[in-house]
């Protein structure tokens, strides 16, 4: 690997990830840092096609299929986008990574079932050759986040889930943070965009 850093953002719906990511990328670029902004599912030509299938509310996809689609998209994303950028010494800023799979599928869909979590963790070990240097979990009250997300034009297949689903997703993110406290930083996502940006910069040592 070169000198690039891999930063991932996590959070439930409506926490302000898009604004936070845009701000961070702008600040890094202004410091002369080469930044590759990407997302999951997506981030490569093939993975973006999978994203369209994955989020289309007209598609009825079971939990196992969700997991396999995520890892198929992630494999292409890694080899087409993330790994080449890191080798060039660029910073990669990614909207969601494998922690979301644990949270959304392992906890949201499978309600924290141990066998499902073991399946996901095994796939991560086998097919994900790089771990983010830092993961920023934007933490916001679920109801507030859903209220924000509800103002969008149309809900995708994940956003259309109920409050109980997102409460389980939140539990999944907390599970990951407790498991990897040295990597995952819990960022208070309440307050203004500038306040959140200050907390992000502090966590990254900028």
UniProtKB/TrEMBL annotation:
It catalyses: dTMP + ATP = dTDP + ADP. One of its GO terms (biological process) is dTDP biosynthetic process. Its EC number is 2.7.4.9. Keywords: ATP-binding, Kinase, Nucleotide biosynthesis, Nucleotide-binding, Transferase. It holds the Pfam family Thymidylate_kin. GO terms for cellular component: cytosol. SUPFAM superfamilies: P-loop containing nucleoside triphosphate hydrolases. ATP binds at residues 11-18. It comes from the Bacteria. The keyword Transcription does not apply. One of its GO terms (molecular function) is ATP binding. Residues 9-200 form the Thymidylate kinase-like domain. Belongs to the thymidylate kinase family. PANTHER family: THYMIDYLATE KINASE, UMP-CMP KINASE 2, MITOCHONDRIAL. Phosphorylation of dTMP to form dTDP in both de novo and salvage pathways of dTTP synthesis. This is Thymidylate kinase. It comes from Moraxella cuniculi DSM 21768.
